[in-house]
Task: inverse folding
């Protein structure tokens, strides 16, 4: 019976209305009023105003609408999200800069190719899954499975910095790029990060502000203290991060950083015998 | 101590009286069987019986025989099992192999027969009468809207009907095989043949090489757990997108493309560094539920202006319920891969012991979707060892819309089912990235052979339909009344929805 009810409403999720949002254009800035507007209409409007030449898109009253910036190939475009961004924001995104004034839900930067995402709040699970390039900066805490299978390729080097704490599986299967966890802007009780940290890691590097217990770390990782060379690579990233959230970089660097890197690029190279 | 207890599986015999001593066998063998000292000298231990040397020997002086060493009879401990124990005792490794399940499980297709018209209704001659094989892949509307054309006729209202479907000229497509697991020339052959036949090829999880861009309207682009080569551009180039959840040859486990196969071009297409393992996690880590699957389906649609999205799963025990969830999640097609489906590399234990036959899966999924009144919402693609047009016709009669062929397509290109895909040394130049081997497949030659195969099966399907007295493949779909079982137990017949022969 549920199916029948859904069909009648064209599959629109309860609480949202499939209607065109109100759009105000001011020069190359477009303002989209998204309150209760179904995600398809919101994202259609975003694509439309960008196609019409908008360079800045302001989304007002976002309340869980999914797929903001998903699949967008628009370098130089800035999307400002006011409210709580829904799942899979900036998924497959290639170019734009998205800034969220609020929290973000799951899947931010999923399989993202290029661009930047800044979240002035917390974010959910599975951030940056399979991310290949661009930057994701989260001010606060993040959930489970963050940075899974991030990968680098030539000049595509994905970077994710999370300012708070993280749950389990941080950087699992990581194949490339840089993943940073600061543990500073946190509402979580308990440790900096959960277990299975970097499990199955075979590329890239993870930096943690503070220490981790060996039991938390996947057996494929080597645990080091970040040295001068590492910090030289990190500093510009952290400077950009601190600028985004108006944080003092000295405080970020006041605690030694732990570095995790894979022991092997081929963790399972010796697992098999050929028949 | 002996280095190994395992004796060669095959014996390579050369009739030196006939041998030209030309060395072509040495050159042709990708496994390194032959050395040359005035005449070719084979090392039996390396032979996989792929017959490359046999095919290319100008003197026809090479034969490959089974090394039929007698073991004391014990049907419980087959020679293969004894060898496996020795192999693992020597190595401690997980046994890795290629192609599909080679165990002698009951083959349901071989226990099903098709009907034909006799006397009471006429059969049709497809050589002289129209016989429609065209098939539309994708979601069909619950109802259609028609409007009058003003001249007493009607036509479909614009935007209704099958507008978002992919038109296939025949219900056969090529199954996903990634660039990386197979060579670029194989991919080109498949893409060219797909275009010529009006069907589809599938990238598998390896990205889309730029050389295939001209054929992109005949390409399904796959999104698997490793997300290799998945960019907005890639998604938008495909005719459809496919979320790969599972594969018949290795349900429930991920993939490891070994670093040796990641050369420069594979690395570019997958967008990963050369030489590192390409590891696909076992699950998609953004899919832990049907709701999550819906989220991924719609993210792909959002990213591409609502192109069709399919979901590929391995046929497993609860396949009907899973498929129902997939359809409700918004998939435009469900791709079912049976346990005999092939692979570029899989642990042998997984390949041979996990999953269920495709015949059963088609029947239960089709029935479940009908019972729930959602069969029109998605097409069913059936794969996992479709060996002939007969298998295809039976699969369609059981409820599939389209069949996908992988092993048969590779065989058209020279594969002899030697099960050495995982080694990266395929002598036929199919499942390898070694330049000296991959150049053995000329895409033009490959496309022609694949086109021949698809056309031949299509003609045979037309003959079968004609015998059944129907003039469109649509009329056969799910028509299990046109099947009968021989030698299947009552319970299996019931599950298949097929009567035993005689009833």
Result:
């Amino acid at each position: 019976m549920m199916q029948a009810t859904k069909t009648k409403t064209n599959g629109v999720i309860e609480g949202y209305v499939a209607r065109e949002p109100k759009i105000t254009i001011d020069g190359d800035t477009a303002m989209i009023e998204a309150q209760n507007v179904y995600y398809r209409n919101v994202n259609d409007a975003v694509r439309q105003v960008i196609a019409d030449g908008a360079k800045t898109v302001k989304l007002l009253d976002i309340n869980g609408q999914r797929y903001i910036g998903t699949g967008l190939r628009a370098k130089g475009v800035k999307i400002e999200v006011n409210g709580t961004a829904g799942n899979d924001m900036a998924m497959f995104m290639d170019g734009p800069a998205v800034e969220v004034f609020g929290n973000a839900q799951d899947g931010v930067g999923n399989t993202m190719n290029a661009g930047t995402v800044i979240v002035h709040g917390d974010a959910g699970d599975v951030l940056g899954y399979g991310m290949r390039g661009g930057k994701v900066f989260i001010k606060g805490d993040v959930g489970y499975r963050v940075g899974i299978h991030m990968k680098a390729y030539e000049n595509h080097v994905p970077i994710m910095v999370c300012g708070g704490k993280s749950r389990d599986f941080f950087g699992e299967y990581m194949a490339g790029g840089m993943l940073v966890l600061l543990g500073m802007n946190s509402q979580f009780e308990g440790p900096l990060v959960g277990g299975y940290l970097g499990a199955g890691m075979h590329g890239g590097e993870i930096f943690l502000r503070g220490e981790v217990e060996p039991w938390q770390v996947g057996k494929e990782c080597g645990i080091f203290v970040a040295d001068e060379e590492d910090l030289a690579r990190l500093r510009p990233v952290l400077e950009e991060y601190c600028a985004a959230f108006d944080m003092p970089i000295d405080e970020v660097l006041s605690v030694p950083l732990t570095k995790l890197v894979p022991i092997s690029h081929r963790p399972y190279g010796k697992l098999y015998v050929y028949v | 101590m002996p280095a190994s207890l395992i004796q060669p599986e095959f014996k390579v015999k050369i009739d030196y009286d006939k041998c030209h001593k030309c060395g072509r066998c040495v050159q042709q063998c990708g496994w390194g069987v032959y050395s040359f000292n005035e005449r070719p000298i084979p090392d039996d231990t390396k032979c996989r019986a792929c017959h490359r040397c046999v095919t290319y020997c100008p003197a026809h002086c090479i034969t490959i025989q089974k090394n039929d060493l007698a073991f004391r009879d014990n049907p419980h401990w087959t020679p293969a099992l004894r060898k496996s124990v020795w192999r693992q005792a020597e190595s401690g490794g997980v046994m890795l192999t290629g192609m599909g399940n080679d165990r002698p499980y009951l083959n349901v297709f071989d226990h099903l027969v098709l009907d034909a018209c006799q006397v009471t209704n006429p059969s049709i001659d497809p050589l002289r009468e129209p016989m429609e094989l065209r098939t539309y892949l994708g979601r069909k509307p619950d109802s259609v809207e028609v409007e009058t054309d003003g001249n007493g006729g009607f036509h479909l209202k614009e935007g209704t009907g099958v507008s978002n479907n992919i038109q296939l000229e025949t219900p056969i497509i090529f199954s996903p095989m990634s660039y990386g697991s197979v060579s670029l020339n194989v991919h080109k052959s498949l893409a060219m043949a797909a275009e010529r036949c009006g069907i589809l090829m599938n990238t598998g999880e390896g990205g889309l090489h730029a050389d295939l861009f001209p054929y992109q309207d005949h390409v399904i682009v796959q999104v698997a757990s490793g997300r290799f080569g998945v960019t907005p551009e890639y998604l938008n180039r495909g005719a459809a997108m496919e979320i790969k959840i599972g594969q018949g040859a290795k349900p429930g486990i991920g993939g490891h493309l070994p670093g040796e196969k990641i050369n420069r071009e594979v690395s570019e297409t997958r967008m990963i560094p050369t030489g590192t393992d390409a590891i696909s996690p076992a699950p998609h880590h953004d899919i832990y539920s049907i709701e999550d699957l819906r989220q991924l389906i719609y993210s792909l649609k959002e990213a591409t202006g609502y192109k069709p999205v399919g979901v590929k799963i391995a046929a497993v025990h609860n396949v009907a319920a899973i498929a129902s969830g997939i359809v409700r999640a918004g998939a435009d097609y469900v791709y079912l891969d049976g346990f005999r489906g092939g692979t570029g590399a899989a642990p042998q234990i997984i390949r041979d012991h996990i999953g269920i036959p495709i015949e059963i899966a088609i029947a239960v999924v089709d029935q479940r979707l009908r019972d729930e009144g959602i069969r029109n919402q998605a097409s069913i693609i059936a794969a996992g060892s479709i060996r002939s047009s007969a298998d295809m016709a039976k699969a369609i009669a059981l409820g599939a819309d389209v069949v996908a062929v992988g092993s048969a397509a590779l065989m058209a290109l020279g594969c002899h089912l030697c099960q050495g895909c995982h080694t990266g040394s395929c002598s036929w130049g199919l499942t390898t990235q070694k330049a000296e081997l991959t150049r053995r497949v000329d895409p033009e030659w490959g496309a022609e052979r694949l086109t021949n195969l698809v056309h031949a099966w299509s003609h045979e399907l037309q003959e079968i339909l004609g015998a059944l007295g129907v003039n469109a493949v649509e009329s056969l779909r799910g028509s299990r009344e046109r099947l009968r079982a021989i030698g299947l137990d009552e319970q299996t017949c019931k599950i298949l929805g097929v009567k035993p022969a005689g009833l």
User: Anything to note?
Assistant: Chain A has four helices and 13 strands. The CA atoms of residues 20 and 44 of chain A lie 9 Å apart. The first helix of chain A runs from residue 2 to 8. The longest strand of chain A covers residues 56-63.
